[in-house]
Amino acid sequence: MTWDGFKKLIPLSDSSSNMSVAYIDEEDIDVGMSSANLAEMSEDELFSKWEPAVVRGVVQQIDHIELDFNGQAEYQSIVTIGVTDTYQGVVEPGSDINVLTVRGAGSEVLQSEASVVSELRLGMEGIFIAVPYDDTFVWKQNGATLQLSDISDYGFPDGERYMFLNTDEGLVFSRDAYPSLRGAETLDDIEVFMMTKF
């Protein structure tokens, strides 16, 4: 696969090899079916595994990227969140964080594991569980290696369970993953829960 002159490449460190990452337009995303399965995790594990940052904020930007693993393409999205409140983690309110997530964030393109992230829109407020990337977060595929921290400081491990979104149709999140939040109707309901939990 060759890059045409219209794609803006993301610089990668020496920890990444045999690959490149470029920004693309939404219409360039290959919308083939995803076969990813969600790993079983309890509500407590979702809040504690990988010591995530838990923040409230507003979606400032959604970028789509193509990852070329030695000729094999994958598609992801990077969401920029303007943080207004922090419930867990070291994120300063008033700062922005970039979060890597499955392809099609903010898109009408639905995937089996991405129905919540597909609801994301610019300007939308939400509460987000973002896993901080360190040197141990590496994606290896087709003889290529990507150090995930090269392209984003944080990630959503899937497009379903790591966000609570205030949409025009009401509060959207994975209710099955959070039994103690099944009755929540507003983002403020989620915030009250977060403030008592952390």
User: What's the helical proportion of residues?
Assistant: under 10%
Could you give the order of strands across the largest sheet?
A: 3-4-5-9-6
Number of separate domains: 1
| Low-confidence runs | none
Question: How would you describe what is shown here?
Answer:
By secondary structure, this protein is mainly beta. The protein has a single domain (9-25, 44-197), classed as OB fold (Dihydrolipoamide Acetyltransferase, E2P) (Beta Barrel). 9% of the residues lie in helices and 38% in strands. The protein is built from two helices and eleven strands; from the N terminus they run ββαβββββββββα. The strands form two sheets. A five-stranded mixed β-barrel has the order 3-4-5-9-6. It has a two-stranded antiparallel sheet with strand order 7-8. The N and C termini lie far apart (46 Å).
